[in-house]
Specification:
The chain folds into two domains: about 30 residues; about 40 residues, Arc Repressor Mutant, subunit A (Orthogonal Bundle). It is built from four helices and no strands.
């Protein structure tokens, strides 16, 4: 098992936080890219009786994304 001392851990945390703040300052997009899809089509397909899983497959997004659109 690999052991990291507390001082080394805090140094790593500082470096990561510094890198993230520098990236934000430079305008870089952090995180996963946004998936663009038609929310109105999700609602229409749902009203036609399609399941969330089949809608997700057709649009190329996750089923939880479809559930979130339908809840909103």
């Amino acid at each position: 098992m690999y052991f990291v001392s507390l001082t080394e851990r805090s140094l790593i945390c500082e470096r990561v936080a510094s890198g993230l703040s520098r990236a934000r300052k430079n305008g870089q997009q952090l995180g996963r890219p946004k998936k663009i899809f038609d929310r109105d089509r999700v609602i229409a397909l749902s009203k036609e009786g399609k399941s969330a899983r089949s809608i997700a497959t057709m649009l190329g997004v996750g089923k939880d994304t479809i559930y979130a659109v339908l809840r909103a």
